[in-house]
Amino acid sequence: MANRGVDIKDSKMRGEWAELRFMARAVEHGLRVTKPWGDSAKYDFAVERQGRFLRVRVKSVTYMVENSYLCNFRTGRGGSQVYTAKQVDFMAAYVVPRDIWYIIPIKVAAAVRSGYLLLSPHREDTKYNAYKEAWHLLCGKKKARSAMHSAAVSAAASECMDPSARKERGPQDDNAG
Questions:
Q1: What is the mean pLDDT of the segment spanning 135-159?
Q2: C-alpha neighbours within 13 Å on the C-beta side of residue 105
Q3: Sign of torsion, CA 119 124 128 134?
Q4: Where residue 114 sits, what CATH number does that domain have?
């Protein structure tokens, strides 16, 4: 399926589309996702991990500045405030033209006083590269630092998986309850 989000010109509609993409990707990683009723909460989703909920704000970005994407993490009337740890736990920024997610802890995003993050998915040496496709952060997992550590992380990652590593469901699974 082609990523047609770049064709959605209305920013509210594109945001709603990005939220659907977030839910699908989170479920692919084995996460449970809850959407609060209404739109007055500062977060868009609660992601459940071992009985604990993490609040996630989803943002989509298509606007380029030079070779990078400018993502607005501001809130309030006229975008006058930066989100805080009292409001959300993570920011999920979706770079629509590249089909890439950044899962950024709010403490990292809130440290940028301007409320604008410059995301450069084509570069490996950027400040936010560690958060590119960092779904493991929503699962409470840290990236492996060595082959031995990688095996330990893999063994413990049953509730949060790489979608390509998930076993396909068979007919016997349909009756599981």
A1: 55
A2: 10
A3: positive
A4: 3.40.1350.10
**Contacts with 50 (C-beta within 8 Å, 6 or more apart), sequence order:** 140, 159
Among the listed residues 116, 113, 114, 107, the one whose alpha carbon sits nearest the alpha carbon of residue 87: 107
In this predicted model, what pLDDT tens digit does every residue of 47-92 receive, in sequence order?
Answer: 997 788 999 999 999 989 988 999 988 886 667 788 999 999 999 9
DSSP state of 62: -
DSSP state of 50: T
**Domain that includes residue 31, residue range:** 5-169
Determine the distance from the C-alpha atom of residue 9 to the mean position of all C-alpha atoms in its chain, rounded to a whole number.
Answer: 22
Q: Are 153 and 146 in contact (CB under 8 A)?
A: no
Residue 176 placed within a domain: no
